Amino acid sequence: MLQTPALLAHAGKLDLVIRHVLAGLGHGIHAGRERGAGVEFSEYRAYAPGDEWRRVDWKLLARADRYYVREAERDSHVAVWLWLDATASMAEPSREVAGLDKLWFARTMLACVAAIAQRQGDAFGLVVCADGRTEFTPASRGPRQLQRVLAALKAAQPAGQLPDADVLKKCLHFARAPSVVFAATDALDWPSPLSEALVRLRHMRHDVRLLSLRTRAEVNANFKSGVAYMDPESDPSGGERLHRLQGADRDAYRAALGAHFDTVTGDCRRHDIACLSAVIEDPLQEALRGWLNIVTRRPA
Question: Which homologous superfamily is 5-26+76-293 in?
Fold first, then answer.
């Protein structure tokens, strides 16, 4: 039976929710990866944000006074990177299900992908964008890594805006090996530093999969008439922070929202980024199955 967010939002522990969602799903993230010991030393390279500290050559640090990472043949395997938009707009709640918001849905979807990556033996890591900053959980393998990622996901709180384009551009060194990037966002800020970063990752030959989240109230424009809604990411001193949706405004709202997400979909198609839209009140299993199944073309 498909588990609905209405049932799962009150389950408490994230690992318990994962077990319910993944029960009987039977899907992997990719068709397979190379096998073998994969520990043969290849070369050194400069440390970049997101690298595992255990791969730093400390003896070389003592000699050169710089951080260098040991590359190995195993680094040619597919890595999985989870990217969470935890900006303020992700706190948008469901108008139907108490305790459910966009961040909960995004966090749970990414947690399920992490659990699948751990089962497959893939390295996986996490990027969280909130309040103008970027937080990394470096990629690694195994059950302990899953607990680290789950802890970081649970700790993420919606705040502020995305980091600026320069910050995100500098941090993309985390995806040096071939990677599958799962990015969860509401895509309301588009184009944005996040969209530019995802396009750049795709041009770097990574498989990029975007999950675009909306509430059913946003899709249907069934907000209460006359109630004021605040844009949590706008400048507090600006005049467009508060919005009132009257009955006559609904058709214009639906048209504007549809045009916006047509732009998101068109941009993703143009740059060969796989894009899936999901309504947070719908069953997670359906959305997860769709996210795992959508694929991008591998550049020649």
Answer: von Willebrand factor, type A domain (3.40.50.410)
